């Protein structure tokens, strides 16, 4: 199990990487479930992810109450994270983002679906949550547990759910996995918009998506993580013991 200190460092790195890779800008956030207390999660205080530091990482109960140190104002949308951890015991990390190429898919009938092998794990079915269905006209922000739980219901067992007129939220079994999926989600959206402009698109099949997702090994995450750490000047701590010994089916 990853130690709290190590996870906190990793969360800071994840903030910087997601900003560098255009998944988040001044807004958006990444959280991790507490490694020792599954009913708590870790999330930066409300500031631009690129600027997040160790001292900014705060601890929350699943219903969004601050535990311990409070270095600043918490994100008003932290309820997205707590509601997901409450509903999905398998989820260890979550990224909420407004990544620019994804948003068009939240406001049109155009389906988001993977078109390139690295993007397969975003899943064959990506639901689109509309806050207006239950809460009427709002500022579209998820600012209560009731809203967070409604979103988590739409997310269901999926890896990604879109949020109409807002962005999306991605979940994973580790910080490295959720960062990886989030980066490739934004890339898939960018490539898909280009492909749609050129003509009819051939999407990955359900079978291909299942094969890619099953074959994605720790090495894949490590390879991306090492590169992204380098780009943002953060230390890379190898975790996968198979690093350098073999390639998963999705590595090229
Ligand atoms: Zn948001």
Would you write up a description of this structure?
The relative contact order is 0.16. The radius of gyration is 17 Å and the shape is globular. With 252 residues, it is of the alpha+beta class. It has helices spanning 4-20, 79-87, 103-106, 132-135, 145-155, 175-198, 206-215, 218-232, and strands at 29-33, 40-44, 57-61, 66-67, 93-97, 128-129, 160-163, 167-172. Helix 1 packs parallel to helix 6 (175-198) and helix 2 (79-87) packs across helix 5. It binds zinc ion (ZN).
**Distinct helical segment count:** 8
Distance between the termini: 29 Å
As a percent range, the share of strand residues is: 5-15%
Number of strands: 8
Main pleated-sheet profile: 8 strands, mixed
Radius of gyration: 17 Å
* Helix content class: 25-40%
The secondary-structure class comes to alpha+beta
Q: Stretches where pLDDT falls below 50 for ≥5 residues?
A: 242-252
Secondary-structure element pattern, one letter each: HEEEEHEHEHHEEHHH
């Amino acid at each position: 199990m990853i130690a709290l200190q190590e996870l906190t460092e990793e969360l800071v790195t994840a903030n910087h990487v997601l900003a560098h890779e255009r998944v988040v800008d001044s807004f958006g956030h990444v959280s991790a479930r507490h490694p020792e207390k599954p009913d708590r999660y870790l999330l930066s205080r409300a500031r631009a992810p690129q600027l997040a530091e160790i001292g900014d990482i705060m601890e929350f109960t699943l219903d969004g109450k601050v535990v311990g140190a409070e270095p600043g104002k918490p994100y008003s949308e932290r309820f997205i994270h707590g509601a997901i951890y409450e509903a999905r015991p398998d989820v260890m990390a979550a990224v909420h983002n407004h990544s620019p190429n994804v948003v068009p898919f939240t406001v049109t009938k155009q389906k988001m679906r993977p078109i390139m092998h690295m993007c397969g794990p975003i899943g064959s079915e990506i639901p689109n949550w509309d806050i207006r269905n239950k809460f009427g006209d709002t500022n579209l922000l998820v600012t209560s547990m009731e809203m967070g739980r409604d979103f988590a219901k739409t997310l269901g067992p999926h890896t990604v759910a879109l949020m109409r007129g807002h962005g999306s939220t991605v979940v994973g079994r580790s910080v490295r996995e959720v960062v990886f999926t989030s980066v490739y989600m934004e890339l898939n959206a960018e490539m898909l918009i280009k492909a749609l402009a050129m003509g009819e698109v051939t999407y990955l099949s359900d079978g291909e998506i299942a094969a890619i997702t099953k074959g994605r090994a720790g090495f894949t995450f490590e390879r991306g993580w090492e590169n992204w750490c380098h780009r943002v000047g953060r230390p890379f701590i190898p975790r996968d013991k198979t690093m350098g010994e073999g390639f998963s089916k999705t590595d090229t």
